[in-house]
Fold this sequence. Notes:
This protein has 3 helices and 2 strands. It is mainly alpha-helical.
Amino acid sequence: MTKNKDTNKPEADSLYFLKILMYFLVGAIWLRVSFTTTPIPIGLVIGLIFVSHEHFQIDRKVEYAILLIAAILSLVAPVGIVLDATNI
């Protein structure tokens, strides 16, 4: 029997950086609806679902931290999707 050497192959640095960047962008998405004052962190929820189903679970804590930092930073910045009920 031969061992498959690809099972323990670490991720490339560029792929790891791209994954962190994507988690930051997804975590920064908020849904702001005009008739409510509280925005909804849909990007954080979607990101948490992606992290929980991640194939490589080694860096799960780092990915959770990136999502939380992105959500907190984007709460004060005008980032996200705005649904204005007056234009419907």
